[in-house]
Amino acid sequence: MDIMKEISIKIAEAAVPDEVDLAPIMTDAFVQGGKEKKDLFIKQGDTELGAFGPVGGIVLFPWILQGIAATAPFILQVLRAEQLEKYLSIINGFLGVCEKLKRKESTNQLPDHLSAPLNKVLDTFSSELKASGLPEEQCERVVSNVLLTLLKDPSGSFVFVEKVSGPE
Fold first, then answer.
1. Phi, psi (rounded to 5 degrees) for 48
2. Helix residue spans in 40-99 (DSSP H)
């Protein structure tokens, strides 16, 4: 299985399980850019997001890809950080805290070269997801699940993030 398909499936399993089957196809379209990418964001009829994900024609995975693309420099900074493995348990705890106040407290346990880009990713990525209509609390949960998934395979994720953030 190629790395793009593998990481797409893992991200979808962690963040939007109902979209696992389509995730690799959506990733291909997103990376292709142009009309294929634009078509991923077309809403089908009258749709809304429910408590557990998309209802009707909204698909969340393209918005996840958009969030990855928008925060790629910061995600890549974290993925290539020195001694990343040493801080993984702290990062896991940091990402598990959805409340911003508690997250700021756990930032003190991370060096600046990790806490600054992680905070930037969480804020910017959440903003991208909000554009889909997803509530803020769910946005932060999705972003945390995506980042935790990417951190499990830093080298493969590095390739994935670079390709997703490529030219349109």
1. -155, 165
2. 61-70, 72-79, 84-96
Q: Are strands 53-55 and 48-50 parallel, antiparallel or unpaired?
A: antiparallel
Dist CA 7 CA 115 (whole Å): 24
Per-residue pLDDT of the chain (168 residues; tens, 9 = 90+): 699 999 999 999 999 999 999 999 999 999 999 999 999 988 654 444 444 444 445 789 999 999 999 999 999 999 988 778 888 887 877 777 655 555 656 666 778 888 888 888 888 999 999 988 888 878 888 998 999 999 999 999 999 999 999 865
Between CA 103 and CA 98 the distance in angstroms is: 7
- State the sign of the Cα–Cα–Cα–Cα dihedral 157, 161, 87, 83: positive
> Cα dist. 20→27, 37, 46, 103 in Å?
11, 18, 23, 29
Residue owning tokens 């508690």: 102
pTM (2 d.p.) = 0.85
